[in-house]
Amino acid sequence: MSDNSFLIKAENIHKSYRMGLADVNVLKGVDLTIKKGEFLAIIGSSGSGKSTLLHILGTLDRPDKGVVRYDGRDLSDCSNRELNKFRNKMVGFVFQFYHLLDELNVLENVFLPAMASKSILGWMRARRAAKTRAKELLSQFGLDARVGHKPFQLSGGERQRVAIGRALMNEPTVLLADEPTGNLDSETGNGILQVFEKLHKAGQTIVMVTHNQRIAKRAGRIVTLEDGKIRKI
Amino acid sequence: MYKAILAIRYLFKRRISYFSLAAVALCVFVVLVVITVLSGLTSEFKKNTYRSVGDCVISTKSLVGFPYYDEFISRLEKESIVQAASPVIKNYAMVKSTESLNGAPYIDRTLEVMGVEPITYSRVTGFADWLVYNKADAQKAFTQSYDANAPGCVMGIGFLFQRDSQGQYIIPDQKPTFKVEISCVPLTAKGALANVGTTVVNTKDFAFSDCAKSGISIDWKTIYLPFDQVQILCGMGMEPKRTNEIFIKFEPDVKLSAGCQRVSQLWRGFVEEKADARYANLLGKVKVQSWKIYSRDIVAVAETQQMLMIMCFAMIAVITVFIVFVVFYMIVSHKSKDIGILKSVGVSSGNILVLFLSFAFLVAVLGSIIGSLCGWQFLVYINQIEDCMFERFGIQLFDRTIYAIGDIPNVIDIKVLAGIIISAIATCLIGAVIPSWQAARLKPIETLQVNQL
After folding, report:
1. Which of A1, A45, A170, B170 has the most crowded Cβ, counting Cβ within 10 A?
2. Residue B26 to residue B36: CA distance in whole angstroms
3. What is the mean pLDDT of residues B27-54?
4. What's A48's domain CATH number?
5. B5 vs A contacts (CB less than 8 Å)
């Protein structure tokens, strides 16, 4: 851990997108720190830049200006290869629309991150352990009977739990969730939040983006993104 | 490993993949069938042409011919590279049959006469094998028993007998017995008419002794006669006796160009040596050529056809590249979400490129296998299919009454097949490389946005 004990520290993050002829400034100098083991909710209205910030924190996108430090290391210094490895090992993404691969079954979707980081020979050696880990995760989320099913055969809640299993496969230090209950009914969404709470209790760092105050209250800390900046921490 | 799994699943789970698979299979099928048939026809044609002249030809276009050929043949026969050499006289003659026996047709036309020594000519060419009634027995080529006064003649089978719809000549079991009257215009060594003031032409009766089936156009226009008889008919029999061609066959291990070079060298030396001999000027008009150059007028046609087909197939390859490009472009568009997901779990752009190129490779390999198997099966039954089409619909791919072929060639050349498969794979990879490159360059946040779904 770095000297100030923050796992992730974003400093003066700026990001703009080109929309037609105009540049839209989405993030206008965001400063944010996330401690290890923290469950943080980022709220804001639609289009406020919550997802953009989450993508920048998870290195799916690069800021136009500003620095993201992970465990004290400036991620802008990292090569693409290092960032790929970072996403594979350190970060787990959970998306609103689950984003499972239709061609893979539930078990394969879950162990995909383990498979993605290995060569064919490496995978041959690690396959058994990865499958065991994936099955354990699915069992933990009550999906034992769904191992061989395809995503289209699952309900929304089940798909999201599979996505969480995939995100946790490589035991990442931070889980980044983008509106994880946004596409679920309240009961199913509640089940997903319970999973997050359980993971948080087990020490998992979670950053969740939502536009819903009620859902955000389930997190340990809430920050609001407004007009491209963090309004309150 | 995920690349292999996903490439296989994309192939079998996506209906659109079947279009690219079908395009590749169809192209491989068409190219394999057409190349096999055309190459078969061309190579058979070349083989037959080669078997009609040997490896090397010493010839003059002059009907006067050239002298001292027997002396030069003796020298050639002492060369270790030469297996056999035979003098041939080619000329034109009026051929007329005065009687028609045993169903043989009445003949009255101009034909090419070839004066040959059957034994030596058979050593150089496939003459003995072409004989229908005295097969493989060149000694009997000009032997007939029904007219002791007339020398025998071997006629090209094409103008003697008709062909059935299968391309087979309808040959009577009993050898026809008839005579033909052959008239040639004899020329002196100086090129003047030999019989000026008398009858102008030399005429002699010949009795039909056999017919020859070479498989090329000479079957329709040539009549073979004993060499010495043609020499007399054409006025070449006076000393020094003349011929107008020498056909040479090299030993099997001799390279064509090397053999021809050696013969050219020998011929140049021979011409220099004979510089002061009588009618030495006739030797200067003689050329030494390989069989390919000698027969280029007819071989070039077949080769031009082959070249045109290759160009057509090059265009097919371009079309295939375009089809694969379009299909892959659509696949990448459909799979953009997958690309975002894969990148979110740490897959690099390079591996995305490899994934889609692996997919293209699979399409190419599987398409090639399907196309090759279908092509192979089609070729196995191509003659039966053609027979069936002819019997039911009267359609025949090659009219056997016109083309000198029996069965349609259907033997697949493994090298050709390998070339087609390698080309198909290269074509697919070329067609897929741009869409795959675009896939690799996609930004994950663009593909994972809600409005992209």
Report:
1. A170
2. 15
3. 87
4. 3.40.50.300
5. 104, 108
